[in-house]
């Protein structure tokens, strides 16, 4: 009898309780479920002892009356729960949940699971009606034993998921305006509240650190095992653990709106979805039991052998088939969540194995996204300080990484920034602003050229490999600001792994100049790149790759990649922790910025589908072998069928549970730095590892 829904039900109950009411309450439903299971186990032990006693009594007493009485009681004790649940399933059309051997989503009809109970119940009733009490009890005993083993294994396969669902902070220490603090329910926190978090405490909501510094364990959210050092200005996430220092945090999001709340929604949503093979089985499940009963009736008509019919019902019970896909998916989701990879639907995990082309954003995805100003190149008559001050004043209203880098440098230089008015940001091109009565333009060279600004007089010899920000004031060029970024740790190793996994096209697209784009593309062994791209170009690139027959994955930060992410067959948001946009836009959210999660995801997808196929094929072979042994050799009894049925289901569950250990060898790589030269060029380009570059059309 399938087990997955029992744990799935606990997941949804836990999620609802964590977000639906006071967190001081205990999580009663899962506890009650375990208590019911423990009670059933006690019944099985009592029934089993009675069966053994009944078997011994046959050889002790001269008559079988004493043995039959004990065996009949044992059969009722052991078979009763199965028969009762089968009647419930027959009435409601849904799988039963009371005895801990569920096999379907408790919110949806799942006729396969319901009819599974009916076949077993019919076999037990038939044996009881023939006064074969000992055999009846033995069949029920082994079926229940197998069910409990399946349940324990299935629950163990998703402990990682349940642990994440239940880590919601329950209490918070809010700082009072007049001094002091008060302990309140974490669910009552609101944006703007200031909380104090001491070492060992869970952070009660997303927020910005206002005072203190500490090492924070973010494994619950990002999957990173090494604590992250954070200080004033850094963001902290709900449910993570403060390990060393005392922190004062201003809450920005709490409860369901926090990163933890969003992640919990993702887990519950994914757990409620079904793989394609399960949906297909559901479609035909309603015909399964009538067909089996018809075959059993034909066998009875020709043989008049009820034992053979009972055995056939037990063999035909599709427990292992129903377990084949859900157990594998639960184990895979558990493995993914441990590494901070959250999948919205299991179908997204299935599709990932077909990915043959990946489109990467550059800044913040392939690079760390922390640009640094490395050169100021002012025009004749302009000072470097004036150039930087004007650029930073215009960019201070933008959230783009380039803008942040320029403003950060102006702060280090202790420059006073004048107020910018009439600020306008032209997506993917630059910004416009009025500063001290002057009209200022900051952005790409092409952006300034479109505005009639001539930059040909600037010295460009030292700009190779840099991202450039051009600045103009009142229609005259002021110069350019050069910035550099670093590629992510181990990114080149990840690209090589993706090539081994069959990803033929590894494409980077960026609005940056060709020189820094080529440097990154060559360093990371990419196959193609497109530089100086506009926001709409990424969408067109995805469409082009799909038109060539590729299954395309799009990877970005989820902020400026919305249309392209939506167009991809698989969309992955990097660094989704703290980003509502990323979590909502992408089908798969990586809560950290480790690129090694991508080959892990593709590998997990392939192995999950392989395990599902192994489970289904093994189960079908088992059924065929047992039917052949029943009718060809006549060596299969109801008791043997019950034992074999349980063993087949347990093998399926254990085979699926292997997926839980996937990703244990995933490690973070040391940072890699490099550089490379380039020439100016537009359009999609092919990158060769030896360095030459040529334009391609597909």
UniProtKB/TrEMBL annotation:
The family annotation for this protein states: Belongs to the cation transport ATPase (P-type) (TC 3.A.3) family. Type IB subfamily.
| GO-annotated molecular function | ATP binding; ATP hydrolysis activity; metal ion binding; P-type zinc transporter activity
Q: What is the lineage of its organism?
A: Bacteria, Pseudomonadati, Planctomycetota, Phycisphaerae, Phycisphaerales
Its protein name is P-type Zn(2+) transporter
Instruction: Spell out the coiled coil positions from the record.
Output: none
Q: Name one GO cellular component term.
A: plasma membrane
Tell me where it mainly resides. membrane
Provide the protein's localization.
Cell membrane; Membrane
Renumbered to this chain, the Basic and acidic residues biased-composition regions fall at 12-33
Stretches for region Disordered: 1-33
Q: Which residues cross the membrane?
A: 43-61, 67-87, 284-303, 309-333, 616-636
Give the matching InterPro entries. ATPase_P-typ_cyto_dom_N (IPR023299), ATPase_P-typ_P_site (IPR018303), ATPase_P-typ_TM_dom_sf (IPR023298), ATPase_P-typ_transduc_dom_A_sf (IPR008250), ATPase_P-type_domA (IPR059000), Cation_Transport_ATPase_IB (IPR051014), HAD-like_sf (IPR036412), HAD_sf (IPR023214)
Ranges for domain P-type ATPase A = 167-267
Q: Name one Pfam family in it.
A: E1-E2_ATPase
EC assignment: the record states 7.2.2.12
Reactions mediated catalytically: Zn(2+)(in) + ATP + H2O = Zn(2+)(out) + ADP + phosphate + H(+)
**Which key words are in the record?**
ATP-binding, Cell membrane, Hydrolase, Membrane, Metal-binding, Nucleotide-binding, Translocase, Transmembrane, Transmembrane helix
């Amino acid at each position: 009898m399938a087990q997955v829904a029992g744990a799935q039900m606990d997941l949804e109950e836990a999620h609802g309780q964590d977000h639906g009411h006071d967190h001081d309450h205990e999580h009663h439903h899962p506890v009650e479920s375990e208590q019911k299971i423990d009670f059933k186990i006690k019944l099985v032990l009592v029934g089993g002892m009675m069966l053994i006693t009944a078997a011994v009594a046959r050889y002790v007493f001269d008559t079988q009356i004493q043995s039959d009485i004990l065996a009949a009681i044992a059969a009722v004790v052991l078979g009763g729960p199965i028969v009762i649940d089968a009647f419930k399933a027959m009435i409601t059309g849904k799988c039963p949940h009371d005895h801990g051997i569920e096999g379907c989503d408790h919110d949806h009809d799942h006729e396969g699971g319901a009819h599974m109970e009916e076949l077993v119940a019919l076999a037990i009733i038939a044996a009881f009606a023939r006064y074969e009490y000992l055999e009846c009890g033995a069949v029920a005993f082994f079926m229940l034993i197998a069910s409990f083993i399946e349940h324990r294994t299935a629950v163990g396969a998703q402990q990682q998921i349940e642990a994440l669902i239940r880590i919601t902070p329950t209490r918070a220490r809010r700082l009072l305006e007049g001094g002091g603090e008060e302990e309140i329910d974490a669910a009552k926190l609101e944006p703007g509240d200031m909380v104090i978090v001491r070492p060992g405490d869970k952070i009660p909501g997303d927020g910005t650190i206002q005072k203190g510094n500490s090492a924070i364990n973010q494994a619950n959210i990002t999957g990173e095992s090494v604590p992250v050092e954070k200080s004033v200005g850094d963001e902290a996430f709900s449910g993570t653990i403060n390990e060393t220092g005392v922190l004062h945090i201003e809450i920005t999001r709490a409860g369901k709106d926090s990163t933890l709340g969003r992640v919990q929604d993702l887990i519950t949503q994914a757990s409620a979805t079904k793989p394609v093979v399960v949906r297909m089985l559901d479609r035909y499940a309603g015909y399964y039991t009538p067909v089996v009963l018809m075959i059993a009736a034909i066998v009875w008509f020709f043989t008049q052998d009820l034992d053979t019919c009972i055995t056939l019902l037990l063999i035909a019970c599709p427990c292992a088939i129903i377990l084949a896909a859900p157990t594998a998916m639960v184990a895979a989701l558990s493995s993914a969540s441990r590494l901070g990879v959250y999948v919205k639907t299991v179908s997204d995990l299935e599709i990932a194995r077909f990915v043959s082309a990946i489109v990467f954003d550059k800044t913040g995805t392939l690079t760390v996204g922390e640009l640094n100003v490395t050169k100021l190149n002012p025009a004749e008559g302009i000072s470097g300080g004036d150039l930087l001050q004007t650029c930073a004043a215009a960019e201070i209203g933008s959230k783009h990484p380039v803008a942040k880098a320029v403003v950060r440098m102006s702060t280090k230089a202790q420059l006073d920034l004048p107020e910018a008015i009439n600020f306008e940001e032209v997506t993917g091109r630059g910004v416009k602003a009025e500063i001290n009565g002057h009209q200022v333009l900051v952005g790409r060279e092409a952006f300034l050229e479109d505005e009639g600004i001539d930059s040909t007089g600037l010295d460009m010899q030292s700009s190779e490999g840099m991202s450039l920000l051009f600045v103009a004031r009142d229609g005259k060029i002021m110069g350019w600001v050069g910035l550099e970024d670093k590629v992510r740790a181990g990114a080149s190793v990840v690209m090589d792994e993706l090539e081994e996994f069959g990803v033929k096209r590894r494409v980077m697209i960026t609005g940056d100049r060709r020189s820094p784009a080529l440097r990154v593309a060559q360093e990371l062994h990419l196959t193609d790149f497109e530089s100086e791209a506009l926001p709409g170009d990424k969408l067109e690139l995805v469409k082009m790759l799909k038109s060539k027959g590729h299954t395309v994955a799009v990877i970005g930060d989820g902020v400026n990649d919305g249309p392209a992410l939506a167009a991809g067959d698989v969309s992955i948001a990097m660094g989704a922790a703290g980003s509502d946009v990323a979590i909502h836009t992408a089908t798969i959210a990586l809560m950290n910025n480790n690129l090694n999660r991508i080959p892990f995801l593709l590998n997990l997808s392939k192995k999950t589908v392989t395990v599902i196929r192994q489970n289904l094929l093994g189960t079908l072979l088992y059924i065929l072998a047992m039917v052949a042994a029943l009718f060809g050799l006549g060596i299969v009894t109801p008791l043997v069928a019950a034992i074999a049925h349980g063993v087949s289901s347990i093998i399926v569950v254990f085979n699926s549970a292997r997926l839980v250990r996937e990703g244990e060898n995933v490690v973070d790589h040391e940072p890699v730095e490099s550089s490379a030269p380039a020439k100016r060029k537009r359009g999609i380009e092919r990158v060769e590892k030896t360095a030459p570059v040529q334009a391609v059309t597909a």
